[in-house]
Each structure stands twice: as C-alpha cells, then as structure tokens.
Input
Amino acid sequence: MQVICISRGTLGRGRELAELAAKKLGYSCLSREELVEAAIKEGIRVGKLEEAMLKTRAFGERLAIEREHYLAFCTAYLCDRAMEGKLVYHGRTGHLLLPGVSHVLRARVVSDQEHRIQAVMNKMGLERSKARKYVEDVDEDRRRWTKSMYGVSAEEVVNYDIIVNLEQMSLENAASALVGIAQLPDFQMTPASKKTMLDLRLGAKARLALARDDRTCGATFKVRADSGVVTVSYVPQDAKLAEFIPDVLRPVPGISEARITMAMTNILWIQQEYQPHSETYDKVVEIATKWNAAVELMRLAPEAEYTAAQPGLLAESMSEVVSGSRDAYDGGIEDDTAELPDDNGGLKPTLDELARIGRSGGGRAVYGDQHQLVEMLGRHVPYTLVVVGDVFLSKGAAAKLRATRDLRGFLSDRIKAPVVTADELKSQYLLGKRDVVRTAVFIGLTFGIYYLLFTNQDLVLEFLSNSGWYADAIEGTLLARYGWMSKIVVSAAVFLTIPIVAYAYGSVTSAILKWIKME
Amino acid sequence: MQDLLFGQFVHLDLATALQVVLLGFIGGTLSGFIGSGGAFFMTPGMMNLGVPGVVAVGSNIAHKFGKAMMGSRRHGEYGNVDKRLSVFMVATALVGIRLAVWINSALFEGAQGDHGAGGSGASNLYISMVFILILSVVAISMLRDALRRREGDGAPSMRITNFLSRLHLPPYIRFKVADVTVSLWVVMAAGLATGYLAGTIGVGGFIGVPAMIYLFGVPTAVAAGSELYLAQFMGAWGAVNYAFQGFVDIRLTVLLYLGSLLGIFIGAYGVKVVKEVMIRVVTGVVILLCVLSRAIAVPIYLRQLEWISTNPDWDTYFNQASKAVLFLAGISGTVVILYNVVKAYRQRRRIQATLIELKPETVTA
Output
C-alpha cells in the first residue's frame, strides 16, 4: 500500500517520470486529471474552485463548503486506490491529502525552464515571450491553488522527501533514484501509518456522506476519525441541521461511534499523558465552555514508546528491505496483525469525558517529535488556542522545561493561534487571585482618572485650548515665546493619557467579562 | 445650538455625558460586529450633540488610538497582521492625516463667526459631505455584495487588483504574510487616501480594509488585522495633530471608552452567531441611515454659511431629526445584534452534545 506522490509542473516530464517509476515498481499509476474527472462526476464544481482561486484568491461561504467536499472526495479516492494496491500518484501536491502517513513518499520533479518553454512553443504554437508568460502563469496558478486549498507553499522544500531535477538527469536515472528511495524502510507501511491512512479515509468518507446528503450539504463540518470513532463539529449557525447528522452517518461503513459537538472553534491540547479531571483538564474545559470551543487532544509520545511496544517490528522491516526481498517484505507488513500500543496515555477516557460534556473535538496519538506533530494537524482547522501540557515526561526537569519551551516556540511559528503552556493557561485566560488584585488596582486608577477629569473640566479644557491657567502658567517662559512648544506639551499629554485610560479601563472590562464568562 | 466652551468644546451635563457613553456603546457594538472602528456612528453622533465636527473627528481619532492598541495585539497572535504592509501604508497615511487636519483646521478657524457655533459651519459641512459621499459608496457596495453572495458564491472580486497588476508600475513590493505583490505607488496612494479620510471623518477601517482587499488582493482576515495595526499609528498621529490644534476633547474620548470597550465584546460575540450575509445587510442598512442622518443636518450648515436662507428656528428641528435617525439606526442595529447574541447564548445552553452509539461495524482494511 505504499504511495509515491509526485508533484509536477506543466510539461515538465513529471508524468513520464511517474509512469516510468510505476512501471519499474509494478505499481498502478493515478494522475490528477483522472482524480479531477472523478470529482467532476461526483458533482463537485472543480472548475468553479479553480476560477475562484484565480479570480478572487478566496472562497466565499458556499465555495468553502465545496472545497471541503472536494478535499474529502480526493482523500477518500486516493486512500481507496492506495488500499487496493501500491500506487504512484502524480499531480500538484497530492501528498498534502495524506498528512501524517509515513509510507507516502513525497517527491517533487523540477525541470529545466527552457525545456518547458520550448515544449509550450511546440505544443501550442506560441512565440517565446508568450510561451514564457504561459509557463510563469501556470506556475503561479499552481502555487495559488496549493496555498488556497492547503494553506502551504508548494515551493517549500520541507514538504518533500526528495526533489528530482531533470535538468541533467535522464528520466531513466531519475526513475531509478525514486525506486531506490521508495524501498528504504523509512517509507514502508507500519501499523501506525496504516491506521493513520484508515482514519483519514474514514473521516473523508464521513465528510463526503455529509456533503452528499441534501439535508447537511450546506453546512460547515469538521470531521475527525480515530479507530472507528468519528467526531463531527458544527458551528452554532448550523445548529438546525445537527439532528440529521446521525442519520446521514449511519450507513457509512467503518463507523463504530459518532460524536457530535457544536463548537465555534477548536482548542488543541497537546500532552503526553491525559487524565480526566486533572487540573489542566479542568482549566481547558472551563475555557472551552466559555468560548464554545471543541477540545482536540493530540497525544505526543516519544517514538521509543511505540517501538518498545513492538520490539520486533522495525528490525524485521529493515532486514526485509536490505535483503532485497521487496515483495516478501510488503506482504509481511500488510499481513502483520500487530496492534498499536494498548495504553494510549489516558486518551480514550479523556475523550469520553469530553464527549459527555459536549466538548469533544476528537483526538489522536503522535509518536515522534514536533515535526510529526505538525504534520498531523488539520490544515484548515481554526484553532483559537493551543495548550502545551505535560510532555517529554522521560526527561529531567530542566531538559523537560527547555524542550517544552522549544516546542512552544516551534508551534508558535507554524500555527496561527496563541500557544501557551499549561502554567500560563490560568494567568492568561482564567481569573485568578492575581487578576482580582490587578483588576482592583485598575478600577481604582480608572475611577481616579475619570473623577479628576470630570471634577476639573474647566481646568482640563483650558489646558487643551492653551488658555486660562495654562496660558498664565507658561507666560514669560520658552513655551509661551514659541507657541508651538506649548501645543506640543498638550499633544504629548493627550498622547500619553489616552493609552493609559484605554489600557486601564480595557483591563477592567476584560476582567469583568472573564468573570461572567463572556469574554 | 448651545454655546461652546472656549469656542470649541461642548457643555457636558449628565444627560449629554450619558448620551456620549451610549454612542460609544452602540459604536463599539457595531464595530465589534463588523470589524471597523465604529466612527461612522460616533462622529456624526457627537455632531448631533452639538460638538463641532472637527472636535468630533479629533476626539474620535484619539479614541481610535487607544482602542486599536488594545485590539491589534490579539490579531497578531493569529498571524493576521502583515506589519510590513502596514508600515508601507502608514508612511503616506500620516501625510494624509496631516493634510486632513490642516484642511479641517483651516475651515474651522477661517470661518469664525457669531453664530454661536464657533465658526464650525464650514468644517461641519465639509465633514458631512465627505461622510455622505464616501459612506454611501461603502454602504451600497456592502449591500450589493450581500445580495451577490445570496445568489451565488462571492468572495471579494479581484477585478481591480488584476487590472492594477497589468499596469506595470514598478517597483513592486512582496508582502509575505498577505501573500501579495503590489506596486509601491498603489500602496502609497491607498495609504494616503486612508489617512486623509481617517483624518477628515475619523473613519479608517471602512476605507483601509476594502483598499487592501480590492486593490491589493489581501485576504480579508489579514486586511482586518493589518488595518488595526495601522490604525494605532494613524490614531496616534491624528490624536497628536488634532490635540496640537486644540481639537481633542479628552472628556468625550474617555466617555466613548466607557461604552465602546464594553460594546465591542458584545459585537464580537454577535459576529460568531450571525451569518455573514446578515452581518453585511445590517451593517449596510445602518450605514445608509447614518448617511441619511448626516444629510438631514446639512441645511443647518448651509444656512450658517448663508448659502441658503431658512428660518434659524428650524435648525433645532433639523438637528433633532438627524439625531433621531442616527439613534434609530444605531439602536436598531444594536438590538438586532443583542437579540441574536442572547438567542445564541440560550440556544447554546439548550443544545447538548450527543453521544451516539451506532450499530457496530467491522472496520474494513
């Protein structure tokens, strides 16, 4: 079930490379054109999405739902084809449909620009300048499409495992290089990667079912699947459609349980070991309740924990590959009935508890480091807050603190949401004793400023208008001699006073709203 | 119209003060709802209370300074601020504000008369006309946009952006966060226009945000965040300039805060529970009514300038009618928002998550 995703530009010989690699490996081949044709048959207006991306660079409400439909369809289609047998896919950025699936080899083909221009000139009969413009425009469209659909840049090399440059390399050698890389143990299927793909497929099929049904097709849903449990979140504006969700999901094969949550947004909570009703749990739930957010759990455990539970697995896979018995190896892994570690670090009971109170946003485990974590995150899930709880439990206190801060910084750079540690959660988002003292001080300050201002209006206005007591006070001084200097003093006073008042009163208001749980 | 203190400041009794707080609350609620600063309501509202236009603009722009400072930090955390874009725009925006302050001050001081209005007739008329012209266009565009979204799917049109990109006006600047490449001249022109209008009528967001979206092609969330970041500097510079001329009534500014910093939370909550089309329709209608309110007050200023001859006693009626329409607009808009907020709050309490057990199925491999 290995998948090789080749990202190609137009007329860059990517198609030929993909077909050659598939032939060498004995894999089936799937192109983007075939995928798009299937999507159109499904009833998805792919042309409209492309047009919107080109014309407006943004999707309105309806097209955003159509985009979700398209992504769900493509994910399900690709997963189905992958489950049938090993596959080479070539298109724009198909690997972005399968985030976190480690047995997907992500390749990018780049070709000599001159070759592409020539190809366009020959194929379309254009003169050089127009052919160059055509190639540049197509590349720009491709870049925009990837950005619009997946929120990432197609050019960033970190999104690929291998980049093949055909400027000097022949197609034959490039295909051989791909074949060699594909056989490395890093890109072989494991039970974890298989589970990830199955979860992706189930989630996509559930989303597809919601998109196909007339009753729910007009709503925005966030769907996650984990081991047969599907979590569906919807926004309050779509509350009327929520009653139909169970009916729509019932016929979807593979769903053992569906959890439905109404939520405006999502809070991501990353931790190594979860416990319902722990201190962090209570804080997260309190914030989620105030904000009407679903809580998504992401268990970050070291890779060693996974391989420790499966001692023979990795060594077995490596020896199979080294011996060159590719076929035997693939068969071995696919037939392996090894299960993932039973102890899921309290993930399941915590998810059950969250579901009970209507705050479940789904959850999954990631075995690895922060890079694998980011790979698993939903690209278009709007997180309002990311909480980094207790992670790196096996490290010493100082190392753990450093690693947690490092993780926090790493996530802050990549996720468009505030990232806080569990310790900071209370001070920043909940009302504590320190907030009460702080609020009392600001109430005093605000009251003092307003009192002084309104009991001395004439004095203040005389100052602002450079007259009365102020004019008398500066008489004979430099300020009076140079009129503009006295006005500068007034400007400076206004400039300093405004932010103080705004901050003081703003802090009071914010604290009061926090207290009544309405911020 | 009442006499002014020191020729430019209005008498503030308890009733007037409470009305200013109410203006701030309604303006804040509307601004939280639609993402703009609320000046389209607060500036004419203060003018209806007898505040000279130039002082209304100056006090409101000072109010914008503090509010933008409080709001922009949060936007930055969500990656919605392209600081580079804001910095490029602010350079010419500050020039635009300075120009606006100069024009407003010149009109105010040049027309000092004995009408008991402190010579504000000319500047009031000027501010009102700019307000009417610009905000009519904004309101009509918003309503048209809302109707277009109903018929089909419409994200902001890129027609103007694509047209400008074909004009070839180097040098071009790349703005990474917004993911756009724009001609420096276009950025500077947009900054100048934004600053000028913010300095003239106190309204920045309604110009800056659409400029970023329709001229540069910036995504809506980044446009809103970047404009808020820009608004801090525009507000600060505007406050300094207007205060230099003696046109900031700090009493009005702090009274506006009393209402606006509370109202903005309610409006922001409302935006989560109301569909986008409804937001645009409510906003468009409220702005149109604000425009109408200003238009009703125009005869007062024309009479003060002796461009028309009407009975001076009618000024009170014009002013009261203008005030009534404005408050009708603001209060009805706020009521609609509050109704939806309360409804959603109660609905949220009623709707519980459902844990559903489906028939166990074999997970197919």
